[in-house]
Amino acid sequence: MCQALLSTHDFMTVETMNLDMNLGLGLANLGGGPNVYDVIIIGGGPAGASAAIYTARADLRTLVIDKGMTAGALGITSKISNYPGVPGPVSGVELVEIMRQQAKSFGAEFLTDKVVGLDIASDPKMVMAGTNSFQAKAIILATGSMGRTSSVPGEVELLGRGVSYCATCDGAFFRDKPVAVIGNNDEAIEEALFLTKFASQVYLVVPTPALKAQESLAAEITHHEKVTLMLGTRLKRIEGAGQVTGVRVHPRGGEESVLPVDGAFVYLQGGQPITDYLMGQLKTSAEGCLVVDAEMQTAVPGVFAVGDLLCSHIKQAVIAAADGVIAAVAVDKFVHNRKQVQIDWN
Ligand SMILES: Cc1cc2nc3c(=O)[nH]c(=O)nc-3n(C[C@H](O)[C@H](O)[C@H](O)COP(=O)(O)OP(=O)(O)OC[C@H]3O[C@@H](n4cnc5c(N)ncnc54)[C@H](O)[C@@H]3O)c2cc1C
What we know:
The protein has two domains: 2-146 and 271-335, FAD/NAD(P)-binding domain, CATH 3.50.50.60; 163-266, 3-Layer(bba) Sandwich (FAD/NAD(P)-binding domain), CATH 3.50.50.60. The chain is elongated, with a radius of gyration of 22 Å. The longest helix has 19 residues, at 317-335. By secondary structure, the chain is of the alpha/beta class. It has seven helices and 18 strands.
């Protein structure tokens, strides 16, 4: 299987030398050597990079494998102003780069490659990336969740330019401006209610004839003075050249029209946790979310999961980062077979 996987890689760059770069040699290295780490972190977004700061600082040999700086949720975000200690706006890439540099300063290695398979039953555990294989005593999964697989015209082009999937993150940019929220679930309605604090008007565009949200939420949104509820209405296109200027909608049995808005918050399908490379080795909830204990450890000892992968109620970079730190401290305890966690305050 691994040889087949080895041919699937797209590209790879090593940012810190010291890795065995002989293509295809991964399996030959399983006895030890340069490809053996104390911990391998899969995903270098805020969750993974923050974990790396702590594991590297604890002198654990740390490798972070990430498929691409702009592939994660933070990486595609153009403006962030709410990360504590980093007055924005900064781009997501800039913020992640700051975290990565901090981790590297403590000795963490970063590799740009895609993880395509794991063996978490073996000891040490095995990580197969596109170009090589690695071993680790512990693994932290931090691959985030992916956005919707289908999109309406204009959505991708205007993402970060008025299109958003996160009112908590971007709502304040729309003070006194009209916005549209598209979706029919609890998340869409909670976000629409949140936006009423800032926006002059909120159009809630619901594709189905009725809301699919909790009764209390549905009642609150229905009677809110700033909200125009548009049931049975489909989003056809997001309009704008370089910035959102409106959303084209089509009510069932009616005429298409354009709602003049500055922001379009799309919640048509929630993000899916990225777990394909696990190949079913860990149990997930019905929504595909990994289950962890208070130390972020999965049912398999030494395998931890953090960040958006866990479908936390609030998806924010600071929460993902905090998850990463909890897991990192637990990894240190696991690798050293300690009974208690130990934190270095120096
Ligand atoms: C449009 C948008 C705007 C947002 N704005 C804000 C904001 O203003 N403030 C805020 O706090 N939060 C914001 N968020 C939320 C925040 O970005 C996420 O909560 C956070 O990035 C989650 O961190 P993570 O590390 O779990 O996942 P991610 O940031 O998604 O990182 C996951 C990483 O895993 C890598 N990866 C995935 N699969 C593989 C694989 N098989 N092999 C190797 N690597 C892999 C990806 O390349 C990626 O770098 C926003 C989200 C979106 C989508």
